[in-house]
Design brief:
CATH architecture of the domain at 64-231: Orthogonal Bundle
Oligomer: single chain
CATH superfamily of the domain at 64-231: MetI-like
Strand content: under 5%
Largest sheet: none
Radius of gyration: 23 Å
Number of strands: 0
Helix content: over 70%
CATH topology of the domain at 64-231: MetI-like fold
């Protein structure tokens, strides 16, 4: 039955468009001012550029050594995501499939860590990291991301694993599949919707994180994109033209990432709803 286009539908579309425009306003300011001169930004940050200074991007590329910063951010984000997906998906599956007091208590303790502010563990973390030689090291930073990322990822996987019928796993075991085979060949493919969600949330967090890399990484060669961008915003000097161009370079890979994953996100939602 064909649905009629009503005034209510029109009103909802208008509201949606307005909300979308509001969310795009910060992006407009960053994009427009990234191709302006410093003086022009101070005169009117909302105005259209009188002259597009794309040379800002070329200068920023060289000043912060963007390829190196991009590579550092990419390695940290990708390896952290892979580790978190592998660790938390297997842990959540094992907890759900072996119900008991120990599994319940362990799950509660791990998830409870989400409510602990990072600032309360910052100093002990740095002391422990120094003792274990994890500071000023990209592998050390990745290990710390494993620790801080496990609670939320485990919580998401734990709830989704409960929706996977255990009969499928029993059938796989009858066919001679090992425990690891059951998980990787049968269970893990069914976790694709929540895996996409976990990867998106962790990518947003790790790629844009500033405080933890600031504490852990001291060498300029190890800087991530947020750390490299922060060099344009000192206590007494703020190079808005260079800084905003650097911000655009930093967020462009994330935008491309979401555009690339868009169809997978839609497929994941659809398959999850059908299941």
């Amino acid at each position: 039955m064909e649905q009629k286009y009503t005034k209510k539908t029109f009103l909802l579309e208008v509201i949606g468009i307005i909300i979308g425009i509001i969310f795009l306003v910060p992006f407009y300011f960053v994009l427009i001012n990234s191709v302006k001169g410093f003086a022009e930004i101070l005169i009117d940050a909302a105005a259209w550029p009188k002259e597009f200074l794309f040379a800002n991007y070329a200068k920023v590329w060289d000043i912060i050594n963007f390829p190196r910063a991009f590579w550092n951010s990419l390695i940290i984000t990708v390896v952290s995501n892979i580790g978190l997906v592998v660790i938390t998906s297997m842990a959540a599956w094992k907890m759900v499939r072996t119900p008991g007091r120990f599994s319940k208590i362990l799950f509660i303790f791990i998830v409870a860590a989400m409510v602990i502010p990072f600032q309360t563990v910052m100093i002990p973390l740095m002391k422990l990291g120094g003792t274990l030689n994890l500071t000023n090291s990209i592998p050390g930073l990745i290990i710390m991301y494993f620790g801080f990322g496990v609670p939320l990822s485990l919580f998401l996987y734990h709830g989704f694993v409960k929706t996977v019928p255990i009969e499928i796993e029993e059938a796989a075991r009858i066919d001679g599949c090992s425990q690891f085979g059951v998980f990787w060949r049968v269970v893990f493919p069914l976790l694709k919707p929540i895996t996409v969600t976990v990867v998106i949330l962790n990518t947003l967090w790790i790629w844009n994180d500033f405080l933890l890399p600031l504490l852990v990484l001291q060498d300029a060669e190890l800087r991530t994109i947020p750390l490299a961008t922060s060099s344009f915003f000192a206590q007494y000097t703020k190079q808005w033209d260079m800084g905003l161009a650097a911000l655009m370079l930093g967020i462009t890979p994330v935008i491309i990432f979401f555009l690339f994953l868009q169809k997978h996100i839609i497929k994941g939602i659809a398959s999850g709803s059908i299941k």
